[in-house]
Amino acid sequence: MKQYLFLGDSITDADHLFDPANLGYGYVSLLARRPEYVDARFVNRGHEGFTIERVLQMLRRDGIGGHWDAITLLAGVNDIPVELFTSHSRIPLEFSAFYREVLDLLCQHTSTILLLEPFLFDEPAEYSAWHSYIEKESQIIHDLALSYSAHFITTDSILRQAARQEGVDAITTDGIHLTPHGNTLLADLWHQAFTALFHD
């Protein structure tokens, strides 16, 4: 049986309530219900509010557990308030260092790592100042993906374009979190990237 682990913040968490048998309502659950993956084991270890540092702390504390056929990570948006609203400088140096440490751990447990780009929508307007940080994080993650032979999945421009075409409310509930349709789009992006790994 194939085993897939998902790590990250509230986008991954999606109210799975720390229950390993509960995948939540988000993109992880949608993927697990696809016919292509019905015989696979999906594990959701996303946690609401997690920064990349918190992901690292969790992995150090609880471990990763055996071999995984693929591990997916989506983190970054919660690091932006640390940069903006505290006296702590996070981006780029600490963000890069913590992310690299996470990848060092993941590489010990899988040969297939998928790194979802953090994303943020154009509305509400209060998030407009955050986009430059999303761009910095995305570049860091993209560069680390190359260094670690991981697979970077572009999300930000695609989801924002969908919001412009279909309406923001169709894709996001608040500028960060996703509607059911938004989660379907994110699941599609993951599936397309994952499938391409084995058909190139």
UniProtKB/TrEMBL annotation:
<dbReference type="InterPro" id="IPR013830">
    <property type="entry name" value="SGNH_hydro"/>
</dbReference>
<keyword id="KW-0378">Hydrolase</keyword>
<protein>
    <submittedName>
        <fullName>SGNH/GDSL hydrolase family protein</fullName>
    </submittedName>
</protein>
<dbReference type="Pfam" id="PF13472">
    <property type="entry name" value="Lipase_GDSL_2"/>
</dbReference>
<feature type="domain" description="SGNH hydrolase-type esterase">
    <location>
        <begin position="6"/>
        <end position="184"/>
    </location>
</feature>
<dbReference type="InterPro" id="IPR036514">
    <property type="entry name" value="SGNH_hydro_sf"/>
</dbReference>
<dbReference type="GO" id="GO:0004622">
    <property type="term" value="F:phosphatidylcholine lysophospholipase activity"/>
</dbReference>
<dbReference type="InterPro" id="IPR051532">
    <property type="entry name" value="Ester_Hydrolysis_Enzymes"/>
</dbReference>
